């Protein structure tokens, strides 16, 4: 295994990702090993890379990147990768150290490059950020807006072409097809929001992960936690949220797959708001869940919101 790995690295250094060249020109090149930092990016890479790539990820389905800490096996995944794809915007506070400690020479592409960053906590209530990692006030959850993900897809396509120039035509065709599906998805979200009563477009979630979604599609999300999941709200925060919910007649609270919903259930009990369902914010589900791909995730979220808020 170790020997194989060393050989692969040596071949990578010499020949780029096309490791299996010695079988002759007709043989398919070895797949490009791409490491995505979390499940949503992994899905985007699969869509653009198609069968030319082999995708691994660090933070898997239903797992929380905010509180992730790299294990030794993860450094090996990084060392094994020909390309690393990260979200950026401070989402993976651990990535630079991990890449460095792995000894990897793989390029790290920041998928969100070119996205207009949103500043978190811009509302009047202002969050107290007690958490330790360093994302400042930039909201990292840019993938919650489909137009932003079209920018991600362009960056991933360009990085794959730079890593594997032979695949240029395939990556371009895959990206074009996937971008068309994203356009259809974006339209579906807009059409659904347009059918929702204006006064109902207000919801409570656990952590502040839906700022780009809210800004892009005209909904208001109030979060009990900040942009990360690792800070606990104070009693004052909770009282403020309950007061705001009563004043603005918020109808529903939504749980998330990556964070603990106990506080939200208490808030729902106290205000009479209903639990509208589970939204998927920072991670896909496994293949049997409702959000195994990015498109499924957005579609599930907008249908869940619509079902709870309409009627
Ligand atoms: Zn988050």
Key structural traits:
single chain, 311 residues, alpha/beta, Rossmann fold, 4-stranded parallel β-sheet, binds zinc ion
Could you state the order of secondary-structure elements as H and E?
A: HEHEHEHEEEHHEHEHEHEH
Please outline the major beta sheet: 4 strands, parallel
Number of structural units classed as domains:
2
Strand content: 5-15%
Unreliable runs, pLDDT <50, ≥5 residues? Answer: 1-27, 122-135
The helix fraction, in percent, is 40-55%
Walk me through this protein's architecture.
By secondary structure, the protein is α/β, with parallel strands linked by helices. The chain folds into 2 domains: 154 residues, Nitrogenase molybdenum iron protein domain (Rossmann fold, 3-Layer(aba) Sandwich); 116 residues, 3-Layer(aba) Sandwich (Rossmann fold), CATH 3.40.50. Helix content is 43%, strand content 14%. It is built from 10 helices and 10 strands. β3, α4 and β4 form a beta-alpha-beta unit. α5 runs antiparallel to α6. The radius of gyration is 21 Å and the shape is globular. Zinc ion binds next to loops.
Task: Write a short abstract of this structure.
Helix content is 43%, strand content 14%. With 311 residues, the protein is of the alpha/beta class.
């Amino acid at each position: 295994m170790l020997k194989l790995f060393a050989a692969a690295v040596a071949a990578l250094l010499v020949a780029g990702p096309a490791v299996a060249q010695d079988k002759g020109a007709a043989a398919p090149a070895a797949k490009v090993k791409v490491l995505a930092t979390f499940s949503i990016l992994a899905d985007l890479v699969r869509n653009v890379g198609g069968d030319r790539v082999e995708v691994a990820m660090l933070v898997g389905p239903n797992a929380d990147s905010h509180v992730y800490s790299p294990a030794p096996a993860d450094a090996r995944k990084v060392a094994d990768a020909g390309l690393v794809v990260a979200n950026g915007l401070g989402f993976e506070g651990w990535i630079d150290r991990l890449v460095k400690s792995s000894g990897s020479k793989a390029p790290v592409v920041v998928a969100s490059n070119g996205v207009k960053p949103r500043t978190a906590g811009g509302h009047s209530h202002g969050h107290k950020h007690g958490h330790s990692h360093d994302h400042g006030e930039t909201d990292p959850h840019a993938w919650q807006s489909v137009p932003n993900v079209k920018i991600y897809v362009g960056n991933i396509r360009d990085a794959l072409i730079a890593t594997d120039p032979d695949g240029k035509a395939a990556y371009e065709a895959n990206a074009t097809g996937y971008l068309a599906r994203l356009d259809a998805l974006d339209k579906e979200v807009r059409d659904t929001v347009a059918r929702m009563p204006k006064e109902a477009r207000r919801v409570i979630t656990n952590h502040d992960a839906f700022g780009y979604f809210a800004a892009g599609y005209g909904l208001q999300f109030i979060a009990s936690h900040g942009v990360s999941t690792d800070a606990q709200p104070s009693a004052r925060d909770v009282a403020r949220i309950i007061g705001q919910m009563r004043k603005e007649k918020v109808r529903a609270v939504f749980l998330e797959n990556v964070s603990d919903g106990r506080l939200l259930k208490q808030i729902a009990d106290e205000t009479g708001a209903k639990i509208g369902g589970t939204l998927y914010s920072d991670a896909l589900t496994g293949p049997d869940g409702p959000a195994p791909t990015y498109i499924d995730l957005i579609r599930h979220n907008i249908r869940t919101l619509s079902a709870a808020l309409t009627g």
